[in-house]
UniProtKB/TrEMBL annotation:
InterPro entries: Nucl-diP-sugar_transferase, UDP-D-xylose:L-fucose_XylT
Stretches assigned to the Nucleotide-diphospho-sugar transferase domain: 160-357
Protein name: Nucleotide-diphospho-sugar transferase domain-containing protein
Coiled coil ranges: none
Superkingdom per UniProt: Eukaryota
Length: 365
């Protein structure tokens, strides 16, 4: 929206006396550059270190991490493993995620449970496998190695399996994301595509055929290790609205990727990419930052794209009113636009997510 920027500045000059116009312009420019500096200058060292970590070999022995399932094909729908990840504090969202997926005729689902209490809470649901990696000695060991020395010194590893909601940005939330990356890496070694979904994603209809057509460019899936795209992400917002309005139009490359909804093909390059993500998160919990840095700056170049926001709307759109054809989002508008999923990220507070889902009649947990 650079044109809008200069148009607004020009209008201010025309309306004000010369001196007032000059002062207005100075403050207008300073306001925007100050916002940029406040948000991004302190992050330079963090980003520089993160980019270096994308290409680093993890401290843990990733070669020992193999496919955790004897027969992963039993978990697949259309050759894809559809999974979410949570602790027992998110059991309500998990139940809602399962309910909406089943309403969308998605038949096989994998719930990765941080603690076994979650599997107990959701119970035995046909077509749903609940798996607790920490019950495996291998993953329990990997989890402990994934925790930083600072975390161990603070004795917070005991809260890692806690039944709290693990709100966004908390230390417990960061630990969950680090462990999730290890699990994703292991499941990719099963050789099946993954549809990774946060628990706050609502399925309105199955996106599998659509994603597979995008991945293979509407051609045969025979050449599975050489797809057109190796990863497909939902579009997300960066948090800085002006940058989003400029950068997300493709002026600076691909759109900002959401790490909480992704279709991933297990090519050798992708497995190497996620090994870099394991290394990135050994010093930084934020997988959203890691995914976007490693996609753009890692030497492990992968083919990726982002999805149409009208068909896969994200939480920023929900917060901003989520308008279709100039109308406020309503259940009637769903059928008009016909999206595949709605993602309630950007609503950080746990009960706030449920409130919005119920308001939009998308809660069936």
């Amino acid at each position: 929206m650079q044109l809008t920027f200069f148009t607004q500045m020009f209008k201010r000059i025309l309306r004000a006396p010369k001196l007032a116009a000059l002062v207005t312009c100075i403050f207008f420019v300073a306001e925007n550059f100050t916002e940029l500096a406040i948000r991004y200058v302190p992050e330079i060292n963090r980003l520089k270190k993160g980019i270096e970590n994308c290409d680093r070999i993890p401290r843990i022995n990733t070669f020992s991490i193999m496919c955790p399932f004897d027969n992963p094909g039993e978990l697949t729908t259309n050759d894809t493993i559809i999974l979410t990840y949570a602790n027992s504090g998110w059991s309500q969202q998990v139940t809602n995620w399962i309910c909406n997926a089943k309403k969308a005729n998605i038949s096989k689902l994998l719930v990765i449970a941080v603690n076994n209490d979650l599997c107990d809470k959701i119970g035995n649901i046909p077509g749903v496998k609940c798996w607790t990696p920490s019950l495996s000695p291998t993953f329990r060991s990997l989890r402990e190695k994934a925790l930083s020395d600072k975390v161990k010194e603070n004795n917070v590893q005991n809260s890692f399996n806690a039944s709290s909601n693990a709100e966004w940005g908390t230390e417990n939330y960061g630990l969950l994301l680090k462990y999730r990356t290890l699990i994703i890496y292991s499941i990719l070694k099963c050789g099946y595509p993954i549809l990774l979904s946060d628990t706050d994603v609502i399925f309105l209809k199955s996106p599998l055929n659509y994603l597979q057509q995008l991945t293979h460019d509407n051609t045969s899936k025979a050449d599975a290790l050489n797809p057109r795209y190796e990863m497909i992400f939902q579009k997300d917002a960066t948090g800085w609205r002006r940058f989003d309005s400029w950068g997300l139009k493709g002026w600076f490359g691909n759109w900002y990727a959401c790490a909480g909804f992704a279709y991933i093909i297990p090519t050798p390059g992708i497995i190497k990419f996620w090994e870099g993500m394991v290394a990135f998160q050994e010093s930084d919990w934020n997988d959203q930052v890691g995914v976007n840095l490693c996609l753009r700056y890692s030497s492990h170049r992968v083919r990726w794209m982002t999805l149409d926001s009208d068909l896969f709307p994200n939480g920023r759109m929900i917060q901003d009113g989520y308008r279709y054809n100039g109308k406020e989002y309503q259940s009637q508008a769903i059928s008009q636009q016909n999206p595949y999923v709605i993602h309630f990220n950007w609503i950080h507070e746990f009960q706030g997510k449920i409130k919005y889902m119920k308001l939009m009649k998308l809660w069936c947990g």
